[in-house]
Amino acid sequence: MAAKIIVIEKNEGEKIAYAISTTKITFGDDELMVNLKTRERDEEVTLDICKDTQNGLTVGVNTEAREYVAQVTIPAREYEIVDTGKQDENGNEIMEKNPVAFDMAKCTLTLWALI
Q1: Is 114 helix (H, G, I), strand (E, B) or coil?
Q2: Phi, psi at 38, each rounded to 5°
């Protein structure tokens, strides 16, 4: 089964080509690949994908960026609290905070028309 992602098209027109896998999104003709799982943090992460002055793709807006083509939003990492089966010196259960597995389907890809 192919990986899914939430897609929003901001305006009409041709959009950049993309392909998604379990944790990665690839833009253009294999021009730029970003592993979203490695970018996940305890707070929401937003990645700006721009076309630069040399028509290459870059992550982030900088002085070379000339065209905004996409934005990827990775929601904050989620955790589940589980009982370790142990107790502290006061007899209280010791709980552990474990990260929930990364889920590409919770990420959002926003696309802008190419100029």
Answers
A1: coil
A2: -75, -15
Handedness of CA 100, 104, 108, 110 (dihedral sign): positive
pLDDT at position 2 over 70: no
Any residues with CB less than 8 A from the CB of 43 and at least 6 apart, and which?
76
**Partners of 46 in beta bridges:** 73
Q: Based on C-alpha coordinates, what's the Rg of the chain?
A: 19
CB atoms within 10 A of CB 49: 27
Distance, in Å, from the CA atom of 111 to the CA atom of 103, rounded to the nearest integer, reads 20
Parallel, antiparallel or unpaired: strands 45-52 and 93-99: unpaired
- Dihedral sign for Cα 26, 4, 76, 81, please: negative
At 49-100, the pLDDT tens digits run: 999 988 899 998 887 888 999 999 999 999 999 999 999 999 999 999 999 9
Where exactly are the structural domains of the chain? 6-111
